[in-house]
Structures are given as C-alpha cells and as structure tokens.
Predict the 3D structure of the following.
Amino acid sequence: MTAAAKSKTCVWRWQERFMTEGVDGLLRDKSRPPGTAPLEVDLVDQVVALTQEPPTQEATHWTVRAMAKAVGIAASSVVKLWHEHGLAPHRWRSFKLSNDKAFAEKLHDVVGLYVSPPAMRLSFPSMRKVRSRRWIGRSRVFPSRRVVPTR
C-alpha cells in the first residue's frame, strides 16, 4: 500500500476486482464514472452563429446568461465554447441608434455646433483649484499645515 502510494480502500477494491474479473478487470478503470458527454456539433454551431448575430433583446451584445438561456445549455458551456472559438462579444464595437423620436433634430443641432460654431460664443475657462497655492485671507499660511503657536 505504501509502495503503490494508494489508500487501503483502493488496494482492497483492486484485489476484489482481480478476484472476480482477473487481469482484465484491472486494466480498465471501473471506479470512476464516465466524463460528461461533449456538446453536439449542431448545438456548438448554433451558439457560434448566434454569437455573431445581434441579440434578440434590447442589448448591445450577447451575455453568457442570455446565450445560455436562448440555446438551452449551461452558462459554463457557453463560456467554454466562446473561449475555444476565440469569441468575445463584449469586446465587439457596435453602434446603435437611439429610439428617441427627436433624435434626428438633436443630432443635427449637436453636429451643427461642431461643424459651424456660432460667431458670438461665450468661452468659460476651466476653474482649476491648485491646492498648494491656495491662500487664506492675506496671510501666507497654507491650509494643509497646522499652525502651532510658539510660547
């Protein structure tokens, strides 16, 4: 048991299997259940095809949970498929137009300001606060320093 680096129960199972089935019983690993079955090829193709199309709901891209719900598989399977195929729908750049009824007028106004700005415009300088140069009243004491009176 110590030479094989296996537990007593494992060795006992091997002995029992050898006594019932012989050497053939030891050649195949009977103690482990079979692994999960791989996804069907049609299902994989469906996930890849849906990922490359825009989602059906109001969203900019497919999420893992939305794809899993649409196809009917686990979210972890979707992550695994996207990783195997090099898909990252959250990184795709896409542009969606607004559903606002006045969007065209607003777009025209904003773009018009950039293309031809008005001749008489007001320009406001940025109000920067420089902390190290802020004075208190007429004294030259910085507010961040604590003034200790001398005795």
